[in-house]
User: What shape does this take?
Amino acid sequence: MIPLRRYWPVAASVVAVIVLQVALSLTGATYYMTQVAMSAYYGLVVIGLCLLMGYAGQVSLGHAGFFAIGGYTVAYMTTVNLLAYRDVPLMRLLQSLHLVVRWQNLYGADVLSFSPWPAFITALLLAGLIALLIGVPVIRLKGHYLAMATLGFGLIIYRVVLGTKGLGQADGISNVPPFHLLPWLQVNGRPPFRIQNYYIAWATVLLAMVLAINLVHSRVGRALRSIHQNEEAAHSLGVNTYRYKLAIFVLSALFAAVGGAMMTHYNGSIGPSEATVMKSIRYVAIVAIGGMANLWGAMIMAILLNFLSLRGVFGTFDDAVFGAILIAIMLLAPQGLLRMPKWHAVASVWRKGTFYFFARKLPDAAEGSEKSRMSPFSRGGSHG
Amino acid sequence: MNFPLIVQYGLSGITVGSIYAIVAVGFNIIYSTTGIINFAQGEFLIIGAMTAISLYQILPLWLAIALAVIMTTILGGLMEVVFIRPVRNASVLRLIVITIGLSILIREAMLHIWDEQVHSLPYFTGTSISTVTILGAHISPQVLWVLGTSAVIVAGLTIFFRFTPTGRAMRACADDPMAACLCGINDRWMVTLSFMLSAGIGALAGCVISPVTQTQYDMGAPLAIKGFTVAILGGLGNSMAAVAAGLLLGLLEAFVVSQFASVYKEAVAIVVLLLILVFRPTGLFVRREIGALRAA
Amino acid sequence: MPKESGGWFGPWWSERQVCMGMRYVRILSVALAGLVLVGSGCKKSTPAPPTKTTPAKAPAAKAPAPAAQKPAEAAPIKVGAIFAVTGPAANLGAPEQKTAEMFVEQINQAGGVNGHKITLLVKDSGGVSATALSLAKQLIDEQKVLAIIGPSTSGETMAIKDACQEGKTILLSCAAAETIVNPLASYIFKTPQKDSDAARRIFETMKDKGITKVGVISSSDGFGNAGAAQLAKLAPEYGVTIAIAESYAATETDLTGVLTKLKGQDVQAVVDWTITPAQSLVAKNMKQIGLNVPLFQSHGFGNIKYVQAGGEATNGTIFPCGRLLVAEALPGTHPQKQVLLKYKQDYEARYKEDASTFGGHAYDALLILTEAVKKAGSTETEKVRAAIETLQGVVGTGGVFNFSPTDHNGLNKDAFEMLTVENGRFVLYTKK
Assistant: This one.
């Protein structure tokens, strides 16, 4: 019997989502749904990264690259104009299978391009393939080296999308058509479809959360946690650490690609600014702020911080706020804000903060103050 | 391609290579003493340069640079005491994330303290159009300053680490912190000192390259990335190797520019980084077994 | 609790005293934080990003208040602005934001447009297209602005173009790409001059000087790529051969390699097309490696800071530009002189930095909007939009604008003046 207790947050979220939608509709403030939907798609990347960083313990500074792969593949395939080849037999075959459709873009021009579903599937396959190709050599690296390697990967993707003419170079790809998931359901950012898309976005995120929760509570999840705690010990117990790490890397890449593809259809465009190092760092920051191994924390923080950022609440201090929150959380509440018992959370952070301010040390009993005396230079060996 | 042209490319490669090398040396100092990779290293260069530029408006150049270096050194030490010291025995992941957060914070602070415009120090000797001819190729005299300063820094560091008590103490901490502690070395201050040293070197480097590359608030991150590449290329912790690796990368970039479309220049460093990490993560100049022992 | 006494307090206080003291500090700080939150919550109504000049914020925030208090006054016009105030395009967005705020303040002090004061809602997109889109949707759907000024870069403009067109909101972009107004969309306009016109002026000058073989370098961003494409397209018309065309990363710090390549091709002139600070690097590196040929820059060179950064090396650079930079040297009868001088003096007096042509694009955008509102005599979007298309002879900083239903840019080749640098100052270029 599957312990259903672990799904009660999902049920609670579903209720909260519906309540929020009704509230927004009644107050006529449905425009907030735009930023919520966009944050939800960014949240997909964060969930995947949380699995990778929190549970498997592998850092990735290049996940914006997978987001971009998903988004650009979808954008390219649904906007590339194959009208010149419409009489080629292969094209006729594809058209009869509805894999290629003819439509008119905003400026009245006739376009013959792939329909969104084949593009979506291709995006996933491509992202998975690239993750596999990158992962095989890179996953066996540890610590700083893995961080550098993923950073390098992210940079390459950025340079590729910035430099390729077919991908729009610096201007990106725009006029991306909506994604008809089902004949009556489409991913579309325009006002008439707001409520529909609000639910699509949340459904995607909650589906991803259910998948992630299932994974974490399964044998695979336990294996991952053992790898995170102590890789050598796990290995000696027969856990195939390399394969698990690689599998989670590919899975998190797929989550990111789904997020990218959906976001591109929602926004109707994508640009190289989605593949920058700063974006990757933001995703890492959100996972860290939510608590490295805390799926719900990561999701909530992703929605919250991205929502505020997209609405311009932080003004010109956007990046500074992320950096400041990141440092504060890393120093004072490394398990994330939500891991602490609710009623002690604020008080505890506060207590630590003032103590730290005056005493220049953290009352981190869990870290072991004795340990800090004995080996001040533990070179990243202990988990914390 | 005639000889002067080859020399020209070579000098262009050596110029950028020495810049990368200095950043990498800064990484290595901190890494070898604490095992932390400081993602905020690039920002030290920019802080040093910006401070010097502001001070130059009221002080003579040499004094401005000296003061800027001192101020950045103190800042580096403060940074370590406030942000790194409490969490030093935390996991690698957490340290990486903290230094990343620091680099973002410093960069945004620079944006709001100064502005988004580009600034530069004046050329130390000559002006922006003076050139020096070497073997038929022309370079700015500032390039010679960059090369000279890098050489002096590396030489100075080598002497410091090999012959002075403090330097030897730092090396002891790098080798075995517990044993160093038992010998009476104050390990915490060694860490702070390594940050201060790294910040000071970075600031000096930033000042000397400022006339050549111009200084803008967001230049720290790309410099840091190139710096890591070079540090890893040479083997983390090995400063002399970092210098050699830096020059190598610079020459490689110049070669790529000469033969292929210059748009691939940026890709060179990244491809080199990935290749090194995949095939020889311990670096080119470190023997495999020793490197494996050193890796975390 | 650690065993030793309270850390930095040393031997002066005991542990217990430190803890007690800290409790009071904690209570005090919570109270203080609460006050700050309450205080800042009151200001959150108009989320204008904090700029270095605080006087700018106060009037903009006060503008809606007097309008609300006097019901007899006309309703304020809401205008949105999306600029890349921070991030990689900050050297474009920051002057644009400052200019916009200054312009709106001046208009409001003069009584507004047809009695309507303007409420300017400035948003910082950080140069990221998704953020720009989200902010645009906010402005269109929630704030229901009459028009959006900006964004600063072409990528962001392309990302929000559809949203503005479908949302029936006027967009006056400060970005230069041709694709913004071609294919034409009825609500989309742009104020910067055409790249093709700039290229034509450069080639005309080259023809006069008898230059036939050039090397082109451009930055690999939207502006640079567009310019390089125009140069390649138009070169044959003027009998110029592009011997070598290279592109460099916008964040490049040393261009000696690329320029050595050009040197190896024995070009008669170098054309550099970029809007980033690398422009000064090109000038310096050219002289340093001994490539002593004329340097042509694009209209992205329009900021004295680039001349200052480049020092003596920039003397002799030839480039097409709006006349803002040489406003003093214009003859008194020139239609643009008054507007340019006023803008320049006001900007420099207020912000203590040199005026640049980038800020001028935002000025022109707001000017066009206010002129259209005056002409239409109403603040209804459709009427204002139609009015813009009929505007003729609007004197802005970038040139004299003449719109039409098929021309949503309004500028032609004459918007440009060929300028050069002499002794570190911008002067008009005269044929020798």
Notes: The mean pLDDT of chain C is 83.
